[in-house]
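User: Okay, second chain of the day. Same drill as before: sequence in, structure tokens out.
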Amino acid sequence: MRKNTKRLLLGLVAVAILGGVYAGLMHMPDEQDTSSESKTLVSADADALSSIHVALSGGDDYTLTSTTKNKKTTYTMSGTQDTSAYSDSLMQNLFSTASSISGTVVEESCSDLSKYGLAGSDSISTVAITDTDGKTTTLRFGVSSDVVSGTYCNLDGKTDVYLVDSDTASALLEQESYYRNLTVLGSYYSLSSELQSLTVDALADGTVLTVQARDTSGMDETTAKAYSDFVFTAPESCDADDSELKNGLLSDLQTLLTAQSIAADNPSDLSPYGLDNPTARVHIKTNSMDATVLIGSVTDDNSGRYVMKEGGSTVFVSDASGCGFLSDDWSDWRSANLMPFSLNEVSQITVTQNGTTHAVAVTQESSDQDDADAESEDSSNTDSSDTDSSDVSQTAALDGETMSTEALQQLYAALDSVNYTRIVDAPTAQQAQATVTLTMTDGTTRSLSFAKGGSREYLVSVNGGAYAYGVQQDELTSITDALTTK
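Assistant: Same drill. Structure tokens below.
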């Protein structure tokens, strides 16, 4: 008897549980499995759409317009006169997404749209897509599904309910700010390849820095390869170390020019952002742009930096790391090589030391490639640099006597490797103990003067400037040794 009572109680409990599950399922929206029917809601060529009006339940309401003229398509955002304020590529992506939309059929002729968040208007977002013929298709979006990935949707005025995949729904329902262009100068520039000139006024220590792309218009390809891509004109004239410059200053600036967010549009007061009295001004000129970026104060959380284009109306927040260059030592970006040159530019090398002068006269000759014998002869001529693959051969005479190929190669290598190891903070007047002068084929000269510095060190003056560079003693010894090589 007790067993039967126990079984009866267990049975009643099971029925109650199953009844509860069934009741719960009855209150959930019908969900289709992966084999449910899919229906095309919008299908058109992206260039056949003229506008997309998005009205989000949160209050954002905007229209994107597409205009094609002379086979060129432009995109505009409603309510803006600044065409650079919004990203063309992001707006184009919206038109591409809106041209092909499909959904899985969830329920046909639904009598209770509220269970999908599609009743009323307060919680509904709409996307109205108009083609060039004036036909408009309006999609209404409700809540997201709790069971599968997607958002419920129906066509305006219809009661059939569809499930649009999450990626498509998210792309269609972005806030207006999503389309804002976060590039401070309005578009993206590769500074390392497009830069013409750059001025930083000023670094943290007050240094005004100017760097520009080297003018190679008067050089042949071989000569141009012997020099850096960039040169400094302030605070001193010298060659840049391209790798250090690109990985330091230019890399930081590239980060700074791509903002993380927008702090304000058309602010009446720039002082909260430190832009009424900028920390620094960076003037950038590329092949297609000439603009100045203002750098303001650090954000409250120290992670960002306020920046804006001079004359612009938007204050951006960029990653604070993009301003790392302001506190760097600009000397880290300059070339350590004190006498860059191309072999086919040299006509004479003069070395004066302890009152004795040695002169190396270099003769540049065009290589004769007409036959194998001439080619073989050319291959034995001095070329001293692996980077100088020109059709010029060279012969040399040291103090009027023929100089061997090996000696000339050694001299070139020594001249090419005069690198400074330190820069003197307060250079003083010195008496030159040795001077090396290159006379180029165009008649110009370049010189290095050596004066005794510290232990096993010379201080060097470049082209008559201050003795500001410390070089190892071996640098001069290598040059003079080459003059005694047979």
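Residues 373 and 456 are 48 Å apart (CA to CA).

User: Thanks, on to the next one.
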